[in-house]
Amino acid sequence: IAGVTTGTSTSPGVTPSAVSGIVLGGGEHSIANNFGEILPVSVAGIVFFDTNNDGIQNNAGDTGIGGVDIVLTGTDDLGPVSLALTTNPDGSFSFEGLRPGTYTLTEPTQPTGTINGITTAGSAGGNATPITTTPSAVATIKLTTPGSRSSDNLFAEIPTNSSVSGQVWMDMNDDGLANGSEPGIANVKVELSGTDIANNPVTRTAYTDAQGRYSFTDLAPGTYTVTEPEQPAGTRNGQTVAGTTGGTATPVATTPSAISNIHAAANQHSTDNNFGEIPQNSSISGRVWLDGDNNGVVDAGEAGIAGVTVRLSGTDSTGAPVTAEVQTDAQGRYSFTDLTPGTYVVTEPTQPADTLNGQTVAGSTGGTATPVTSVPSQIEGIVLGANQHSTDNNFGELRGGSISGRVFKDNNDDGQVDPDETGIP
In which residue ranges is the amino acid composition biased (Acidic residues) (predicted)? Predict the structure, then answer.
């Protein structure tokens, strides 16, 4: 401020401050050339991982996030203000040496590996954006009193470093354990759904790799469900098993298979959420035919017998009973497909019309056939593995023959039935 004599003072905000052009006459004194100073204000806070989404840095995992851009905008007594900095390694930041005014803090870019958490206005108040709004900001920070400070402006971020994973596999013995020798099933669709800790709905889709494995990564803490929406081709539903962080798996009788209530905390990895499938890609087939030479071999020219009922019975690898019936086609062929590994019996319950029982022959995977003297004919002890096809389980039949003749009065004893010779009833 220029004194009582003439002079020109610099404007507020111009440094260094000066009073120039002070003109002094003889015996004059220039007094009250004063330099007024204002105590600066400041705005500070921290950006941090909020592992439990409570908006407070109070857990061991709630570490600061360094290198995050923070922008300060607002208006002081000299006009608009715009400043920027990046957070320190511990996530802290501070705008110092500010003139009194009204300010806004903004985090323009969501930190890598996070979703938005709770933003909290600091010690001087202000209006924080809700968790659903990005970019996060604290507006209307009023620092009109010189020397005042707004501290603890908090930008809490939820880490996305959790995961849910598992495997879809052929559970050959239906024990619910992926034992390493049982193959995975590739290209199976698996869906993730649920709600993260910030109440955001989460939906994702993955497909199993060549080993049947799937993984959903970069998840925020939350509660999730994994679902296998479609039964893999060539299988029937087996045991579904919740993983390392627990959950509720659907029973075998329920499809689609799912594991719900999978709780994933920050940096927690729920593994072995597995979907066991029982292979249903094996078969038993054979033929019913007229074995003209009764050698037990389907020779060229020997015809099949159509419309013959063949019955399948047995127990699959899960202990479940299996029964089915088919009829032979025009060539006498029959087939039971989509079978689970197990031990089976094929039976011809009724002897085909106008035939006699011939040789019954066990097929390509072995078994025990009944002898010609036993009816109904059957082949038992047919053992099937996964994707195994037992062929040529055949039922040979013999064409029925006949013997006929006549009892008569041979009047002339010549051994011939003459026209006048009658039969004897």
Answer: 413-425
